[in-house]
Amino acid sequence: MTTQRLKKNAGMTLVEATIVLAVASVIIAAVWMVSTVVYENARQYQANRQLQTIVQNVRQLYARMNALTNIADVTCTLDAQAAFPVEMRVAQGTPCSGTPALNHPWMSLTAGSVRVFNRDATTFAVVFSNLPKKACIGLATKLTGGDITALKNVLINSVSTTPPVTIVTSTSRCTAATDTNVIEWQFDIRA
Question: Domains in the chain, start-ordered, CATH in brackets?
Answer without folding.
Answer: 2-188 (3.30.1690.10)
